[in-house]
Amino acid sequence: NDEVFLAMSKALNFIDPDEISATVVLTALNRFLQEKNGSKMAFLDGAPPERLCQPVVDYVENLGGEVHLDSPLREIKLNEDGSVAAFHIGGVKGKDSFDLTADAYVSALPVDPFKLLLPEPWKQMEVFQKLDGLRGVPVINLHLWFDRKLTDIDHLLFSRSPLLSVYADMSITCKEYEDPDKSMLELVFAPAKDWIGRPDEEIIEATMGELNKLFPTHFGGDNPATLRKYKVVKTPLSVYKTTPGCQQLRPDQTTPIKNFFLAGDYTMQRYLASMEGAVLSGKLCAGAVSQS
Ligand SMILES: Cc1cc2nc3c(=O)[nH]c(=O)nc-3n(C[C@H](O)[C@H](O)[C@H](O)COP(=O)(O)OP(=O)(O)OC[C@H]3O[C@@H](n4cnc5c(N)ncnc54)[C@H](O)[C@@H]3O)c2cc1C
Q1: Ligand 1 pocket: which of 107, 139, 193, 239 to mutate (most atoms <8 Å of CB)?
Q2: What ipTM goes with this model?
Q3: What is the pLDDT of residues 137-165, one digit of tens each?
Q4: Per-residue b or e along 257-270, where b marks 16 or more CB atoms closer than 10 Å to that residue's CB
Q5: Which residues line ligand 1 (CB under 6 A)?
Q6: In the chain, at which end, N or C, are there fewer CB atoms within 10 A of the end residue's CB?
């Protein structure tokens, strides 16, 4: 619990090994060992909105689909038999709110906001009651710009520092941040439960203390590396916290409601709480909709 499992549990779920379900660590190890590319790491070559979301939008639109931004789901309206009558979409940024009707309805919301929108009659159903046991874990993401190069490693790094988790020098790993002279570190700060409410300055100070230990040659001596600028991104409820027993609480993509389906990394699929897991849940959900 102080070497590999510490690094793994913090990277996989932003919590320490004494809290995480062994299922998560064993599942990840199993994938690494059994799948040819299971342990492959890759980076987007730019920011997610342009390099991840826009290509998905283009793909959907090229196939005749539509993507509506700034259109949050505010209420799931029901028919008398408990099936979905409409999704009520909120009006933000000057837009009008409206009711969206469809043959099949999918929620791909994270589990915490979805629970807040559960219609009253559904709350008694076992599948939705179980969601009470799934709750997002707090995590902090840090972006740090330095005045010099701290490392030449072109890879994701796993830390077993008590405060830091995975990190990478984006000036090397990511084309958009490429800089031959200065490092730009992106770090996951975890476990974050005792830090999420603290001011950014305190979080940065604690992080710099940890970096001092990771890069002693750069931060010690007469001419220590300096931080040029930083950004602290706090996510109080991120991926669901995978504590022992929570695997049984995860819902399937189909629900007892005939025209309502679920997608998202917290729904049951084999890739844990990850981007791959979210994508796979979407594929399983699409399959369930087309079979219904
Ligand atoms: C700091 C951090 C680092 C991570 N690093 C990695 C990593 O390196 N690799 C990896 O595979 N995974 C990583 N993850 C996990 C990964 O981000 C998640 O597993 C993945 O994003 C889950 O996808 P999702 O579609 O289920 O949910 P989300 O990505 O959370 O998408 C849900 C969407 O629903 C929207 N939404 C919420 N409420 C409403 C509403 N009322 N109406 C309409 N829309 C709504 C949200 O805005 C959001 O866009 C990381 C997560 C965090 C927080």
Answers
A1: 239
A2: 0.98
A3: 999 999 999 999 999 999 999 888 899 99
A4: bebbbbbbbbbebe
A5: 72-73, 108-110, 113, 139, 141, 188, 235, 238-239, 264-265, 273-278
A6: N
Q: Count other C-beta atoms under 10 Å from residue 61's C-beta.
A: 11
Mutate which of 274, 276, 280 for ligand 1? The one with the most ligand atoms within 8 Å of its CB, which is 274
Per-residue pLDDT of 174-186, as tens digits, reads: 999 999 999 999 9
Determine the topology of domain 73-135+241-291 in CATH: FAD/NAD(P)-binding domain (3.50.50)
Give 178 Cα–ligand 1 centroid separation in angstroms: 26
- Give distance in angstroms: CA of 110 to centre of ligand 1: 7
CB 234 within 8 A of CB 189: no
Alpha-carbon distances, residue 260 vs 84, 149, 248, 280 (angstroms)? 7, 51, 20, 18
Residue 235 CA: distances (Å) to CA of 149, 238, 266: 28, 6, 17
Provide the CATH number for the domain formed by 4-11+138-233 in this structure.
3.90.660.20
Pocket test for ligand 1, best of 13, 92, 109 (most atoms within 8 A of CB): 109
